[in-house]
Design brief:
The complex is a heterodimer of chains A (about 110) and B (about 110).
Chain A lengths: L3 E3 L3 E4 L5 E7 L5 E8 L3 E10 L2 E4 L6 E7 L2 E6 L8 E8 L6 E2 L3 E5 L1
Parallel strand pairs in A: 2-11
Antiparallel strand pairs in A: 1-3, 3-8, 4-5, 4-9, 5-6, 7-8, 9-10, 9-11
Chain B lengths: L3 E3 L4 E4 L4 E7 L4 E9 L5 E7 L4 E3 L2 E6 L4 E6 L8 E9 L7 E2 L3 E6 L1
Parallel strand pairs in B: 2-11
Antiparallel strand pairs in B: 1-3, 3-8, 4-5, 4-9, 6-7, 7-8, 9-10, 9-11
Classes of the chains: A mainly beta (about 110), B mainly beta (about 110).
Chain lengths: ~110, ~110
């Protein structure tokens, strides 16, 4: 079974803090994705990566950056957290870019 | 206009009922289509792919109408365990491996 894990299920941070969200997959998938999910807006793509050290902006990259130093790990960074970044963050991986396997999500609250 | 649109519901149906969801997509260049299922407070998981010829998996039938740019999901003999949010997902083949998600249709099957 594909397993995608995320470093935290719940996280509370203060405005202006730097936040790291970690995602690890164990299936040697090339493609990894970060989404945020908000009520009524569905999943929106923040960034994705199709190879180590490669990254591409998604639909809403502003205020975020990513890092992929190893194939199995894809990190999302909030350089200076703001209250409008309070959301559910979902990481996913895929082999051929079709079926995506999701992690359990991190519910981030920025106060 | 959203790229993938769904009726958010909720659809409240009794056990044993047949229920259908539709989804429309705006980009005629879309190549691949899927239905994902998301249980409350869980991550999305692939339910089924949608093929041009239509496809069936047990009680679930998915259809694609390219001319009208919509996808449908039919659930027969609804079970309590079918209660979830159903996400319509499209791959717009612009070279990106990312998927575009609808915001979901919530189904509540009642005893």
């Amino acid at each position: 079974d594909v397993k995608v894990t995320q470093s935290s299920r719940y996280l509370v941070k203060r405005t202006g803090e730097k936040v790291f969200l970690e995602c690890v997959q164990d299936m040697d998938h090339e493609n990894m994705f970060w989404y945020r999910q908000d009520p009524g807006l569905g999943l929106r793509l923040i960034y994705f990566s199709y190879d180590v050290k490669m990254k591409e902006k998604g639909d809403i990259p502003e205020g975020y950056s990513v890092s992929r130093e190893k194939k199995e790990r894809f990190s999302l960074i909030l350089e200076s957290a703001s209250t409008n970044q309070t959301s559910m963050y979902l990481c996913a991986s895929s082999l051929l870019g079709i079926e995506q396997f999701f992690g359990p999500g991190t519910r981030l609250t920025v106060l | 206009r959203k790229e993938v649109e769904q009726d958010p519901g909720p659809f409240n149906v009794p056990e044993g009922a047949t229920v259908a969801f539709n989804c429309t997509y705006s980009n005629s260049a879309s190549q691949s289509f899927f239905w994902y299922r998301q249980d409350c407070r869980k991550e999305p998981k692939l339910l089924m792919s949608v093929y041009s010829s239509g496809n069936e998996d047990g009680r679930f039938t998915a259809q694609l109408n390219r001319a009208s740019q919509y996808i449908s999901l039919l659930i027969r003999d609804s079970k309590l365990s079918d209660s979830a949010t159903y996400l319509c997902v499209v791959n717009i083949n612009t070279g990106r491996r990312a998927l575009t998600f609808g915001s979901g249709t919530r189904l509540q099957v009642q005893p």
